[in-house]
Amino acid sequence: MKKGLLLSLALLLVSGVAFAQLPPVGYIGLYTDTGAPPDPLSSCVTGTGFYPVEMYIWTLPSENGMICAEFMITYPASVIQSTVTTSPDVSVTLGTLDTGMSACLLNCSWTWTWYFHQTIYVTDDATPMSCQIVKHPDLAILCVQFANCDPGYPTECCIVHTDLLINQECPPEDPVGTEDASWGAIKDLVK
Question: Could you tell me the pTM of the whole model?
Answer without folding.
Answer: 0.78
